[in-house]
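Deliverable D5.2: sample structural annotation.
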Amino acid sequence: MANIKSSKKDIRRTIRRAADNKQVRSRLKTLTKSATAAVKTGDADKVKAAAKVTASAYDKAVKKGVIHKNKANRLKSRLAKAEAKARTATKPEKPAKADKAAK
């Protein structure tokens, strides 16, 4: 245990910040899991909403200094890819137009 008053204060501050950071990281994990679950269901609207909320949370975590900006961008990119894949999987195919040559 530290003897100096400022060191004791630093320890208290570190504990408080670590707890705050842990809470943010836990929320990011939860949001990511819910977004991937939405992707698996295939509902495009749910996926879009979940991806938007999750991407926003990543940006806020970067702003707070909880995670590195490159990590956030990498994870958001993966999420966007999954969203696009889910959107194209649920998109109905367009009916083929009748050829003029067939007439």
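Annotation notes: The chain has a mean pLDDT of 90. Residues 25-88 form one domain.
The annotation will be released with the project's public dataset once the embargo ends.
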